[in-house]
Design brief:
alpha+beta; 4 helices; 34% helix
Length: 82
Amino acid sequence: MKKDRDQMLPEYDFAGKTGVRGKYAKAMKDGYTIKTFKGKKVAGETHYVAIESDVHEYFPDSSSVNGVLRKIISLVPGRAGR
């Protein structure tokens, strides 16, 4: 019985197919945007960027990164209030 559960289903047979290693690596490194749709209209966008490990030590999550970036933006002359 257990042996049957350990077998891969026929629809998951990837024999003869090849994958491409790192196919999306450059896009992930360069940053990317995910758009959500409601019908045909864009309902929202989420932007992702990669941060390096030394930066991640100080800013471990989106909230901390966004907080610091908003503070820097507020210090740029002519950008206040946007």
